[in-house]
Amino acid sequence: MDRAARQASSTFAQLPADIVDLAIAGLRASGAWARRHADRLHRDSVDYGYRLLVAGE
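Structure (tokenized):
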């Protein structure tokens, strides 16, 4: 996931960018993520299931 996309996700945006960059670089170098999630590499979008629920009066 590129940096701009990560900054749009609250989970990644709250973490120090240098820590996230280092972790992602490690996953890329090892190929571990690509092996586990090869089916996701060519998708244009992913639904992570985030939903906003607002209670009425």
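Residues 28 and 44 are 19 Å apart (CA to CA). The mean pLDDT is 83.
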